[in-house]
Amino acid sequence: xxxxxxxxxxxxxxxxxxxxxxxxxxxxxxxxxxxxxxxxxxxxxxxxxxxxxxxxxxxxxxxxxxxxxxxxxxx
Length: 75
Known about the structure:
Blueprint: H1 3-74
């Protein structure tokens, strides 16, 4: 085997290692993105639920505030 051929094989091996490392990084990043999307979806659903609960509680809160105001006025 010639010196040039050995040098080329070493370069190919280095490139293969770099590609394997990059593939591993891409897989890791894809997993992180998937997890972030899942968590974002959960948070979006929680915010929507809180918005519904807030809307449902506002009429009750206004009614109780009116009762307190009337009670203060009559004293």
